[in-house]
Recover the amino acids of this structure.
């Protein structure tokens, strides 16, 4: 069959199909036959039966399924929709029924689905209630862009309504609630409504946090009242900047009014702490899908059953970060304010869209709430061996905490925030918040592979066409981040809990080059170095001279602690003593001299040291004591050159070593002065035993 024949054949087939459509035959089987036959040359003919006739005198066509036939009736049942909106609604089936209510106790027990939805909305309306008008907004579930899908309306209970106040504009409108959306739904919201949101080539959601690309510690405030006056750490060295109750309520009202003025708000109900007996229920009310997806990843995600019976939250965040605070308000020093009220169990965010403020704000809350239950909150990484031996890793940025706690031969319990209770350790979070700058598949394969659908990428730069991320690009900020569920790490232990730790490892990157690669600590020394929280950063070049700069952060997380560091240190020592844990100080910094003359400790040696700690071999090693700091150092570690275990052996200039050692000892002493003679409550003092564990010269 040549090309012309094929063309003629196809053209005739098309005409016949059009004739069939025009004929309007509803039952072709009853029509007189019209047969199409194809001759050997590819030409077709039409044969009509007697009496055949269609509209406008056209012949009716009977189509029958025949082998190799092209034009035939393959009619399927008509779709069950009268409008295109109904057709679209059929595309999305309703989620599987939430868990059976048999045996369920609490606020939503024995309620119909409609009643449960109503109570959920009433709870959220109460959270968003104005303190002056004493009434919450009118809420309706769903996206306002899909009006037909959100028919139910709920008001706050009658006792929340005070008719003596005049109505506001926001009280005349409905606020749509997007409640515990899935990552896919949040992707749609972000891409459609939030400028700067894109899907990257790996499937992660790239977002922008606006003008603020990091935390604003100088704008974070805590309400100082009769309770917190004595409980919290105030004054020199403390991260807690005070504000009064009235100012907090002014900012809260501003945030709530802003959120209520929007067409929709995004609400997350989630948990903190994998220990079910000590978990905290948190509610996050925000304006951005980016913030909701971030917290979906970072907090513990409730099951359907847990969400049904969630009830009233223990703590609420009002994230109105797109709206500034009033600079003329008392205590305000900029348009940004992150305010914490421990009495009301509320946090207000104004003037910053950086999502990390929510994560670290809740960490501060846990630093306050958990010690009240005799549970120690810790800024640390945590992993567990296959035999159940748990290790805690403390360390500031650049010390190798993430690298050393991520071990393919051990299970990851968590990378950043933990609790240590009478039952063991538990991760506070449900996700990881990893730095992305200079990220590569070779250096950090677990993090690289975790950046996929569902992951939030903050402030990264990507190719506008391929959407491939350039992790070396610092055009937006150097603080690029990825937030992803902990399940994205292959060796994560789910649930994220473990037995009592056997080893507590304090990491320091000593750029002065005088701390040994590893030291075994007694309890007093562990408390001293835990309170000090030391590392050293390399300063920039000034007139061709590079010098290390000592950095101290109490409890290896001073920006987040609420109580005085000695309280956390005392709890740590008590738990270590009770459960037989050993403290270690590991230097991942310089050897053979300070930065500029010595060299960085080889990662392979540090890993050998960590392996020896995990295996227990270092406990049986021979030790000797160093000068000034009085540290116990092993004389040998398998796989590590013995000469580097004592720093003095690696310095060619012994005099310079001694001077540098005394210099660092002086820096430790100066830093510790802020903790001397501190009174815990009305009478407790820092013990002389801890002070005596510091450098002596």
């Amino acid at each position: 069959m040549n090309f012309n024949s094929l063309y003629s054949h196809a053209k005739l087939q098309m005409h016949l199909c059009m004739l069939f459509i025009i004929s309007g035959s509803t039952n072709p089987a009853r029509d007189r036959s019209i047969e199409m036959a194809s001759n050997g040359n590819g030409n077709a003919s039409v044969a009509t039966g007697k009496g055949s006739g269609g509209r406008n005198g056209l012949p009716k066509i009977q189509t029958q399924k025949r082998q190799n036939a092209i034009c035939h009736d393959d009619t399927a049942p008509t779709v069950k929709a009268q409008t295109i909106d109904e057709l679209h609604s059929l595309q999305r089936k309703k989620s599987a029924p939430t868990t059976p209510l048999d045996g369920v106790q609490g606020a939503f027990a024995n309620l119909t689905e409609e009643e449960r939805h109503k109570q959920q909305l009433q709870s959220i309306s109460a959270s968003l209630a104005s303190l002056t008008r004493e009434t919450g907004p009118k809420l309706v579930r769903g996206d306002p862009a899909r009006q037909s899908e959100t028919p139910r309306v709920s008001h706050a209970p009658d006792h929340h309504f005070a008719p003596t106040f005049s109505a506001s504009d926001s009280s005349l409108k409905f606020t749509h609630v997007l409640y515990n959306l899935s990552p896919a739904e949040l992707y749609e919201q972000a891409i459609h409504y939030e400028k700067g949101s894109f899907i990257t080539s790996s499937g992660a959601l790239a977002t922008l946090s606006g003008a603020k690309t990091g935390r604003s510690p100088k704008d974070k405030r805590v309400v100082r009242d009769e309770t917190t006056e004595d409980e919290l750490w105030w004054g020199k060295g403390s991260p807690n900047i005070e504000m009064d109750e009235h100012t907090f309520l002014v900012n809260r009202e501003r945030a709530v009014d802003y959120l209520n003025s929007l067409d929709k708000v995004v609400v997350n109900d989630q948990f903190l702490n994998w220990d079910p007996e000590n978990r905290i229920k948190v509610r996050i009310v925000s304006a951005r899908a980016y913030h909701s997806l971030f917290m979906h990843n970072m907090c513990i995600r409730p099951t359907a059953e847990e969400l049904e019976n969630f009830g009233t939250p223990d703590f609420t965040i009002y994230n109105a970060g797109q709206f500034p605070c009033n600079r003329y308000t008392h205590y305000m020093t900029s348009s940004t304010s992150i305010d914490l009220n421990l009495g009301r169990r509320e946090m207000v965010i104004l003037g910053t869209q950086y999502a990390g403020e929510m994560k670290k704000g809740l960490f501060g809350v846990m630093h306050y709430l958990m010690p009240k239950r005799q549970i120690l909150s810790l800024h640390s990484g945590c992993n567990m061996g296959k035999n159940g031996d748990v290790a805690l890793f403390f360390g500031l940025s650049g010390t190798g905490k993430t690298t050393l706690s991520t071990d393919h031969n051990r299970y990851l319990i968590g990378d950043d925030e933990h609790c240590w209770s009478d039952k063991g350790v538990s991760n506070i979070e449900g996700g990881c918040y990893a730095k992305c700058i200079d990220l590569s598949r070779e250096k950090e394969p677990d993090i690289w592979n975790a950046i996929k659908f569902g992951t939030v990428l903050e402030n990264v730069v990507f190719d506008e066409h391929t959407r491939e991320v350039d992790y070396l690009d610092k055009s937006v900020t150097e603080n690029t981040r990825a937030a992803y569920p902990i399940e994205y790490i292959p060796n994560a232990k789910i649930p994220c809990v473990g037995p009592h730790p056997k080893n507590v490892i304090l990491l320091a990157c000593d750029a002065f080059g005088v701390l040994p690669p590893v030291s075994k600590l007694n309890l007093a020394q562990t408390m001293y170095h835990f309170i000090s929280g030391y590392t050293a950063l390399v300063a920039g070049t000034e007139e061709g001279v590079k010098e290390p700069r000592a950095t101290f952060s109490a409890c290896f997380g001073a920006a987040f602690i609420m109580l005085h560091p000695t309280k956390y240190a005392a709890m740590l020592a008590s738990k270590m003593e009770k459960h037989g844990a050993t403290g270690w100080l590991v230097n991942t910094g310089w050897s053979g001299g300070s930065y500029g003359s010595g060299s960085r400790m080889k990662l392979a040696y540090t890993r050998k040291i960590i392996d020896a700690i995990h295996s227990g071999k270092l406990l049986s090693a021979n030790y000797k004591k160093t000068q000034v700091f009085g540290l116990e150092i092993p004389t040998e570690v398998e796989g590590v050159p013995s000469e580097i275990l004592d720093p003095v052996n690696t310095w060619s200039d012994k005099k310079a070593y001694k001077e540098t050692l005394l210099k660092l000892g002086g820096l430790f002493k100066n830093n510790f002065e802020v903790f001397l003679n501190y009174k815990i409550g009305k009478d407790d003092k820092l013990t002389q035993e801890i002070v005596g564990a510091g450098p002596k010269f």
